[in-house]
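Residues and backbone
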Amino acid sequence: MVVFRLTQQEYDTLKGVCSERGGRNLSDFTRSELMNFLGSESLGGLVERRFTDVRQRLGDLQDAVSKLTILVCNARTPGEETE
């Protein structure tokens, strides 16, 4: 048995999707959808994809910080003291 909590909005969404797709009941529908999801992509593949996304976002953030640093350094007036 697996138990997890949902917000009211998540629960309502799940109930609606279950009804739209002709689910017999919420428990069977949720179990079936979860197992289909897990079978469609290996857990390792999912984790790797998430890490790749995080790496990309960190790279983008580093680029943005570098550009901001250059802009700030170039905006200083001559003779201005730095800390």
Remarks:
- The mean pLDDT is 87.
